[in-house]
């Protein structure tokens, strides 16, 4: 029986199963990202890229690996530099744009999110906020709850980096709510710890808002 990811990696390598060869480092990449260990996430993302060089069709796995490879590259570029990271972020953004031209419903919000991260990395701040907000609107239009959480978190981080504490907290609280609705309670709780969020007021505001909405519908 397979009892851990190392065993699964060994099975993937011995069987040459392309799905497992892609899924195992991809899973580790996503896990490291959500834990905030971007250097580890980058390491696994490079394994994913080597395994997936011949893939052309945007499968479910490929779509999310492309999104997070771009996010990881841009965020690490802003933290510790490296032109190769900026180039990788742009490559992932351009790939997502190509897919978005064929299916906006699936790819547009992801492409806009990568555009926001890339524009922040090259200091084109006039475009950054607009791209974040448009990504959020598109994700909301299509009911992508987990991507709403991610986009609000990244916009909150952007506001925090530029001194807008109140706007940052509002976005991070919304991210917490969407992550919780998605079922990612560990990610939501990490937001509270990392940013010292007070969720009580936000939850009360939502309760009041939902109550008013219910009365209007009666």
Tell me about this structure.
The protein is mainly α and 218 residues long. Helix content is 83%, strand content 0%. The chain is built from 11 helices and no strands. It has helices at 5-15, 18-35, 38-51, 60-80, 83-102, 104-121, 125-141, 145-161, 165-182, 185-195, 200-216. The protein is globular and about 55 Å long. The termini are far apart.
Biggest beta-sheet profile: none
Low-confidence stretches: none
C-alpha geometry: globular
Helix/strand structural class: mainly alpha
What's the number of helices? 11
Percentage of residues in DSSP E strands: under 5%
Q: What is the helix fraction of residues, given as a range?
A: over 70%
Strand segment count: 0
Quote the distance from N terminus to C terminus: 55 Å
If you compute it from the alpha carbons, what radius of gyration comes out, rounded to the nearest whole angstrom?
18 Å
Overall pLDDT metric = 85
One letter per element, helices H and strands E, the order comes to HHHHHHHHHHH
What would a concise description of this structure say?
With 218 residues, the protein is an all-alpha fold.
Keywords:
218 residues, mainly alpha, globular
What layout of secondary structure does this protein have?
Elements: H1 5-15, H2 18-35, H3 38-51, H4 60-80, H5 83-102, H6 104-121, H7 125-141, H8 145-161, H9 165-182, H10 185-195, H11 200-216
